[in-house]
Specification:
Rossmann fold, alpha/beta, about 650 residues, six-stranded parallel β-sheet, about 20% strand, eight-stranded mixed β-sheet, about 45% helix
């Protein structure tokens, strides 16, 4: 028996909807292949996850052993990216997406964007993604580009299989046409559109049976009201959810499937109908355009009552058309894949590896978002001062015949991430340069090497680049003891006083320059359209929680957070260094869509940190987060974040 997998779904795993039926069939097919799979249903509300849902997922993931293989259905994964992130480094996580959460019908723009961002952030933490249609693959990639939240996990398409079924009999000349609709009663499925269309079809030639759970009570009432108002009670019946035997009997008794959905991630009932030789009348919403083969049915635009009416009238009254479509459905039936083939493809997808680890990708996404605003905020004056010091240092060395004029200056970039520091500095220094990139994350280090190797100096000369995959806990690595400049960006708020003292002592021992940029000050606030600060009590409360969270041990001792910059300045002065400082805040203005992804990531990050600091206040923090995200995307507020740059030079040089 192979290592067991765990499949996590939202709610009861035995629900009879397309997504849950897909999951059940895949589990059965994988077990037939000898894989061991445990299925866990989570309590709580989804997809707008509540505290109970978050705790259920956290408890389930915490109970798994390190390196366990886990598949999280998108309804649970996309709603709780922060919970997934907490376990991304120790678990092998696969996301299973049926369709993007934010594409559900009936969401307002704010909720739609919130769900899209949440799901994309979740995908940044997983090792692979499995989707159920080519359409969903295209859609997820398009959303990642739209929101500027890319992820590197490989995507595999595993379309649903189908169980072979007896062919349903054709309609006899004298009998009415029996239409079958199989879909949960939710706005996205469009049963209200179907009833309005049927109201325009001559009554004597058809009846329609609708099977599916009433997931949305208000929508179900609306559909029933439409049935009553159009006096279709003897023609259209809402049967509710049913068991497999009842549904199979309904397929055998039908002459066509009608699926009026606005959007489907695949549309499994289409292939189930084709497996029974039934023509399909549906829409082009989402993946349905791809799912229904040409010639096996009729497709109309989603929400088009007139077009759906015309399709229904034609099918009910034109025997030649019905015969042609049954032939097309029969041909499509012969080409359908089974669940065993789907299980084989799913098993192979589970073996695919990501090029970046999930944690690395999450960090890379954040670093990518901030790189542009970092570059516009950094102090050019301090870079110019560093360049002058380097020129004087080289001149003295050449005069003393200690080095050749062509020898490069050496810069050690601590915690280099994806190479943003070298991207900014290298072209602004006219000296020949050797960059030593230092990080504990091999995936980020590889990306930094690739990007830095393509750079040139301010004179157009290529750089020399080395990488060193080491922990930052120890500062006695040779790369740090044999360099002219030690530099880092957005790092020191994560370190302790002892680490800062060690760094200062090391620089002083080797007479190195130190350039530390974009260190947070612990100050941030929202601004109005005139870029004036907003004085909000909840903002200050979240800020206090965030700053407290920043002081947790991040692996380099008790972090100093916003006090780190001042501590470093004092430590360097103690060693006789001349310390130059510059204010380098972020100014993210209201009403600039290009900056919305970064601002939303900031809000999400502050909320996540605050929730970890005060879990008992999770609901209040979530409400604050949602309100601020709405204000951001509506262009009502901007964000100011305090940062400082520091250049420390040996006092007796330059």
């Amino acid at each position: 028996m192979s290592q067991p997998f765990t499949l996590i779904v939202a709610g009861d795993p035995d629900q009879r909807t397309g997504g849950y039926i897909y999951d059940a069939h895949i589990v059965a097919a994988l077990r037939e292949r000898g894989l061991s799979i445990n299925v866990v249903g989570l309590a709580g509300r989804f997809p707008d996850a509540d505290d109970e849902a978050a705790q259920a997922l956290a408890n389930t993931l915490s109970a798994l052993q390190d390196y366990a293989q886990v598949i999280i259905d998108g309804l649970a994964m996309g709603a709780l990216p922060d919970v997934v992130a907490n376990h991304a480094e120790r678990l092998d996580i696969t996301a299973l997406l049926h369709h993007p959460l934010g594409d559900e019908q009936g969401l307002n723009e704010i909720d739609q964007q919130r769900f899209h961002r949440s799901e994309l952030c979740g995908l940044a933490h997983v090792n692979r993604v499995i989707v159920t249609s080519r359409f969903t693959e295209r859609r997820v990639k398009a959303l990642a580009e739209q929101y500027e939240l890319p992820f590197s996990a490989p995507i595999t398409v595993v379309e649903p299989g189908v169980e072979r079924a007896p062919v349903s009999p054709a309609a006899q000349p004298s009998e009415p046409i029996r239409l079958l609709c199989v879909a949960t009663l939710t706005p996205r499925k469009g049963q209200d559109i179907l009833v309005q269309a049927l109201a325009n079809v001559e009554r004597g030639h058809w009846r329609c049976d609708c099977f599916g759970g009433a997931r949305d009570v208000a929508f179900t009432d609306r559909v029933q009201t439409l049935i009553d108002n159009h006096q279709l009670g003897d023609r259209v019946t809402l049967h509710g959810e049913c068991d497999a035997a009842t549904l199979e009997a309904a397929y055998q008794n039908a002459h066509a499937l009608v699926l009026p959905s606005w959007y489907e991630g695949y549309g499994m009932v289409v292939t189930e109908a084709l497996a029974h030789g039934l023509p399909v009348i549906t829409t082009t919403g989402g993946a349905l355009r791809d799912t229904l083969p040409k010639g096996a049915g009729i497709s109309v635009a989603p929400g088009d009552v007139k077009a759906l009416t015309s399709a229904l009238v034609a099918f009910c009254h034109d025997e030649t058309l019905r015969t042609e479509l049954r032939a097309g459905a029969a041909a499509a039936r012969d080409r359908l894949g089974d669940w065993q083939a789907a299980g084989k493809a799913f098993a192979e997808a589970l073996q695919r590896s990501s090029t970046l680890s999930a944690g690395s990708q999450f960090a890379a996404d954040w670093l990518s978002l901030r790189e542009g605003v970092d570059a516009s905020s950094r102090s050019q004056a301090l870079v110019d001062a560093l360049a002058s010091w380097l020129s004087e240092k080289q001149h003295r060395a050449e005069s003393a015949l200690l080095t050749e004029a062509s020898s490069p200056i050496t810069l050690a970039d601590l915690g280099c991430g994806r190479g943003s520091n070298s991207q900014f500095l290298a072209p602004r220094l006219h000296h020949a340069q050797c960059w030593m990139l230092i990080d504990h994350d091999p995936a980020l280090l590889n990306e930094a090497y690739s990007r830095t190797s393509q750079l040139n100096t301010g004179k157009g000369e290529p750089l020399q680049v080395e990488t060193h995959c080491v922990s930052l806990k120890q500062l006695d690595h040779p790369a740090l003891t044999h360099c002219d400049v030690v530099t880092a960006s957005a790092l020191i708020d994560l370190v302790s006083q002892a680490w800062i003292d060690a760094l200062a002592a090391q620089c002083a021992k080797h007479r190195q320059a130190l350039l530390i940029t974009l260190s947070i000050t612990g100050e941030w606030y929202f601004t109005n359209a005139q870029q004036q600060p907003l004085n909000d009590l909840d903002d200050r409360w979240i800020s206090e929680l965030f700053n407290a969270h920043q002081r947790r041990d991040k692996g380099l001792g008790g972090a100093l957070g916003g006090d780190a910059h001042s501590a470093l300045a004092k430590a360097m002065a103690v060693h006789g260094y001349r310390v130059n400082e510059a204010e380098t805040p972020w100014h993210l203005a209201a009403g600039k869509p290009a900056q919305y992804p970064l601002m939303c990531s900031l809000v999400e990050g502050w909320a996540n940190a605050a929730t970890e600091q005060a879990p008992e206040a999770a609901s209040r923090i979530a409400q604050w987060r949602d309100e601020r995200l709405r204000h951001v995307v509506e262009g009502e507020i901007g964000i100011w974040v305090g940062h400082r740059d520091l250049l420390a030079l040996p006092a007796d040089e330059g």
